[in-house]
Write a structure and sequence with these properties.
Arc Repressor Mutant, subunit A; 4 helices; 70% helix; 0% strand; elongated
Length: 60
Amino acid sequence: MKRIKLQILKALADGTRLKIMDFLKDGEKNVGEIKPHVGTTQSNVSQHLRILKDAGIVDN
């Protein structure tokens, strides 16, 4: 349980991932829609989404 909480906290301890989460609060978005909102590359958005997914915060 402690390990899961730590993984979630680490995943959310990044400004870009927080921006992504804020953008996703209104519903599902694809990487292309997220990219301009956070101001980074598609590859970078995908990496951040993978971290959020691995932490169980988002799904496909």
